[in-house]
Amino acid sequence: MDLNQIDAFLTAQTKKQGGISAEQAAVIAKFWKNHKAKIRERMITHTRWESTLKAMNWRIDLKSQSRRTDQVNTPVAIVEMEIGKNNEESEFLCLEFNEAKMSQMLKKLSEVEESISTLTQTS
Fold first, then answer.
1. Full-model pTM
2. 70, 90, 73, 74: which is closest to 82 by C-alpha?
3. Using CA atoms, how far apart are residues 6 and 56, in angstroms rounded to an integer?
4. Which of 35, 42, 83, 115 is deepest in the core (most CB within 10 A)?
């Protein structure tokens, strides 16, 4: 809830029979304002049961050596990801893509983005 929402909610609670007092609402609003970010992070941490992507780095390299001479000086995308749960040791994943595989991956990511956009559009 943002501050307007918490104010509206607390106002409604003070008007309910058997609800909270205006002083209690003020204390709750102040607490929410001061600790909203901490509460949000704690809730996310406690409701997440899968590993998450903690960090990602990427770069484009040129192959300087290869068993096949036609692969020398070809671009290669290197993607490094840190994956893990909070308060646990992370795992590191390193992926290498040639130009064709990178194009395929970008196409799939575009399809995923399009699907998400379609699902989240409001009519």
1. 0.51
2. 90
3. 35
4. 83
Q: Which comes out higher in pLDDT, residue 82 or 66?
A: 82
- Residue of 55, 63, 104, 102 lying closest to 80 (CA atoms): 55
Cα–Cα distance list, 123 to 112, 116, 117, 118 (Å)? 20, 15, 12, 10
Which stretches does DSSP call E strand in 38-100? Answer: 52-62, 75-84, 91-97
pLDDT at 1: 74
Q: Which residues contact 3 (CB under 8 A, 6 or more apart)?
A: 29, 32, 33
CB 46 within 8 A of CB 40: no
Structure token pair of residue 16: 């309910």
Dihedral pair phi/psi, residue 39, rounded to 5°: -65, -45
Identify whether the C-beta of residue 80 lies closer than 8 Å to the C-beta of residue 93: yes
pLDDT-derived band at 44, boundaries 50, 70, 90: confident
- What DSSP state is assigned to residue 17? T
